[in-house]
Structures are given as C-alpha cells and as structure tokens.
Design goal:
By secondary structure, the chain is α/β, with parallel strands linked by helices. The chain has a single domain, classed as TIM Barrel (Alpha-Beta Barrel). It is built from 11 helices and 8 strands. An 8-stranded parallel beta barrel has the order 1-2-3-4-5-6-7-8, surrounded by 6 helices. It binds SN-glycerol-3-phosphate. SN-glycerol-3-phosphate binds next to helix 7. SN-glycerol-3-phosphate binds near residues 6, 31 and 131.
C-alpha cells in the first residue's frame, strides 16, 4: 500500500519524506488555505521533495472552468494529478482530461456508486472520504471494501485512494482490504511507528546494557 501525505505543510511533508514514507501528496483548497504562500509555490516546493503523484484541486465548479484550471495545474509539474469533485461537471471533465492524458483524482466521494462512475469516467484515483462518512454514522471502510470489490469485478484500473483518514485504524483496515493508497495527515503516519512496548523494551535493553559497562 502506498502512503500519500495529506497536507500542504512543507515542513511536515518533509518530515514524512525523510522517513521514506511519502509516496505522494494530496492537497485540497482547505489544506492549501492554511499556508501563507501562493498555491503554485506550495506545489512547486512539494514537487521538489516528493517524487510521486501530487494532487492539486481545482476550485471551478463548472466544466469549462475545471478544464481550464486542470490544464493549468497539470502544466506545473509532470507529477501533478488534477483533483476534481464528484459532480456531473467533475465526471465530464474527468473524461475530457483523460483524453488529454491528464490524470485525475476524483475527490469528495462518499458512495460506491460515485466511485463506479469515477472509474467509468477514467479517473486515475478515487478518494472515498472515510472519516467524514464515519462522522455521519456511516461505515467509511465498508464503502472502501465495496469499491474494491466493484473495481475487481470489472477490472477497473482506477486506484482506490482512502482519504479523510482520522486514525491508525483506518490505515490498518485500508491495508487489510488491499487499498492501493492511503492518504494521511502527517501526524497519523508518524503515529504508526509508535508502540509503548517498543519504548519499554528499548529502555530495558539499554538499562541492562549500561550495567555491563561496555561500549560497542
Ligand atoms: O484529501 C481529503 C482530506 O484532506 C479530507 O480530510 O479530515 O478534511 O475529512 P478531512
């Protein structure tokens, strides 16, 4: 499973990249709005440190605006993937951008049916928002499971990119289900390495070694 960093914070992305765990990055208008620099600068800086798919979302809601912004974003760097919302205009633009060999990450997906349409439109990635589904009492990971089954049934090559990840349980379930990608806030990725028994065991090893009074 690939890990994408769900952030526009360069320092945090670099921290994950330094661990070799940044296979790509996803941004969205809310994440970008938290950074006090132009969007193109954010993307240029991210592309300079992560050699993988970098999702950049349009802000247009109409077909023509999505096409204009999608083409513009795609020209920023070879690794840019254009993020489009799962709407009628988004599906139409996905199909059109696919013909221009511009990869699309269909975002704001909340149902298996939406993911089916995204695949049929030719999206390179589909982003089911599991955290936001859980927030409304639905089962986000169940939707991921269904999407993976539907994609397998029809041999779609759209990659399932689990998004809106809120905890390490979402990561584990994504891996158990065989999701292609999990995009996580940097903090979640960094949390994956932690276990209290590891810290406890390391302390015991070092305490015991210290009694030996020897250096390696
Ligand atoms: O990339 C999608 C992700 O950023 C949404 O996460 O936590 O705002 O639902 P969240």
């Amino acid at each position: 499973m690939k890990f994408f960093v769900d952030s526009a914070d360069l320092d945090k992305i670099k921290q994950v990249a330094d661990l070799g765990l940044a296979d790509g990055v996803t941004t969205n208008p809310s994440l970008a709005s938290k950074q006090n620099k132009p969007f193109k600068q954010i993307l240029d800086e991210i592309c300079a440190i992560v050699d993988g798919p970098i999702s950049a979302e349009v802000t247009a809601v109409d077909f023509n605006g999505m096409m204009e912004q999608g083409r513009k974003l795609s020209k920023f760097h070879k690794n840019i993937v254009v993020k489009l919302p799962c709407t009628e205009a988004g599906l139409k633009a996905t199909k059109a951008l696919k013909k221009e060999k511009i990869p699309v990450n269909m975002t704001l997906v909340f149902s298996t049916n939406q993911a089916l349409l995204a695949a049929k439109a030719g999206a390179a990635f589909v982003s089911p928002f599991v955290g936001r589904l859980d927030d409304i009492g639905e089962d986000g990971m169940k939707v991921v499971e269904e999407i993976l089954q539907v994609y397998k049934n029809f041999n779609f090559d759209t990659q399932v990119l689990v998004a809106s990840v809120r905890n390490t349980e979402h990561v584990l379930k994504s891996a158990l289900l065989g999701a292609h990608v999990c995009t996580c806030p940097p903090e979640i990725i960094l949390e994956l390495v932690k276990h209290h028994k590891t810290d406890e065991g390391l302390k015991k090893f070092l305490d015991d070694w210290a009694k030996k009074g020897e250096k390696i």
